[in-house]
């Protein structure tokens, strides 16, 4: 179990009203709930019979900004919501005519478009809080959202909610635990999950751009922090999350470091024995250190490839295995590396909405 210190309260910029928000979903899609609450003040929660966790996270913040008078400072444990504004994802969406970087329609546009317009026109600001980290208000809105999803009722109040109005506390209750583990069940019947090499837990792959220089750069440091945030958010949905990484220089080595930063276990997945034998001494040392810190190592093929062509083929088979066993994935791209773009397309075809694209150029 990871120990966390009690967080400091979030300060509202420019006298804005602080509002905590959260969403919950019993399945993905399934019945869901959203909630917002002002510390020491008003709150509201709502229910949707068929929705997704991401939609509930958006709607929680949207409802708060719609309802609260004056500037609002949203505090959310959803990187999906916070990063849309902090990293200005919305600029790219609008520039591309509401298409994402894969030239596909932006998911949840019906909520995003009016919410972005409202937020930008009302001086709304955003902060991310780690979910279930001891922040009392994050716990309050989490319980309110869970209660809405379970009770199928809309509720609100002008004073802080009572225990009877909130859902049960997080840890000891089976029903709240089952709500948060619902996404894990989506992959439970996949044939690939019978493979004995798959680690226990909810496998989550991180792949993408390969670069020996990335980790030490300022962009690499930003990427490491960002990966840790996304993985932390995923761990709130999947309490037994385990990161799968091949430890190749670039996104994969940073994935191991980010998982370690977030206190999430990782498993090294190698296409064949000792793939780092031809790397530089420094890169090899990073590889060896990361291997030593892993929960375990899976080596998919026993024989070393005979040449570069065979190595590329083995890496392709490794990616195929990752796609077949993972419940979700992060793919890091830079808009230039064709190999990373190909990985993104293949993982998106296999895992759909459970794939997060991190665009390196937006972190620079």
From TrEMBL:
Its cofactor is Mg(2+). Gene3D superfamilies: 3.40.50.450, Ribonuclease H-like superfamily/Ribonuclease H (3.30.420.10). GO terms for biological process: DNA replication, removal of RNA primer. Residues 154-178 are annotated as: Disordered. The keyword Transport does not apply. HAMAP family: RNase_H. This is ribonuclease H. It comes from freshwater metagenome.
């Amino acid at each position: 179990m990871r120990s966390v210190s009690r967080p400091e309260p979030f300060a509202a910029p420019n006298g804005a009203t602080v509002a905590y928000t959260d969403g919950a979903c019993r399945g993905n899609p399934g019945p869901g709930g959203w909630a917002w609450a002002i510390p020491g003040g008003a709150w509201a929660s709502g229910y949707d019979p068929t929705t997704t966790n991401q939609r509930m996270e958006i709607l929680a913040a949207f409802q708060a900004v719609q309802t609260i008078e004056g500037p609002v400072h949203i505090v959310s444990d959803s990187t999906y919501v916070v990063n849309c504004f902090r990293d200005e994802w919305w600029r790219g969406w609008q520039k591309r005519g509401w298409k994402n970087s894969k030239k596909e329609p932006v998911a949840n546009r019906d909520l995003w478009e009016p919410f972005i317009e409202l937020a930008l026109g009302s001086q709304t600001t955003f902060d991310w809080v780690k979910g279930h980290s001891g922040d009392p208000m994050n716990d309050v809105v989490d319980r309110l959202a869970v209660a809405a999803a379970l009770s199928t009722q809309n509720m609100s109040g002008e004073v802080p909610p009572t225990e009877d109005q909130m859902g049960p506390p997080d840890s000891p209750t089976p029903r709240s635990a089952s709500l948060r583990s619902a996404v894990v069940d989506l992959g439970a019947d996949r044939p690939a999950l019978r493979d004995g090499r798959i680690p226990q837990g909810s496998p989550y792959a991180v792949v993408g751009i390969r670069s020996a220089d990335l980790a030490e750069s300022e962009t690499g440091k930003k990427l490491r922090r960002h990966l840790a945030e996304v993985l932390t958010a995923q761990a709130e949905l999947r309490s037994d999350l385990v990161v799968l990484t091949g430890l190749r220089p670039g996104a994969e080595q940073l994935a191991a470091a980010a998982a370690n930063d977030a206190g999430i276990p990782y498993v090294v997945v190698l296409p064949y024995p000792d793939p780092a034998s031809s790397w530089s001494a420094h890169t090899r040392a990073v590889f060896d250190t990361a291997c030593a810190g892993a929960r375990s190592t899976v080596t998919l093929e026993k024989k070393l490839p005979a040449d570069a062509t065979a190595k590329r083929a083995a890496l392709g088979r490794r990616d195929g295995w990752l796609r077949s066993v993972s419940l979700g994935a992060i793919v890091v791209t830079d808009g230039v590396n064709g190999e990373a773009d190909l990985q993104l397309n293949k993982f998106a075809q296999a895992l759909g909405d459970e794939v997060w694209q991190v665009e390196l150029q937006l972190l620079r």
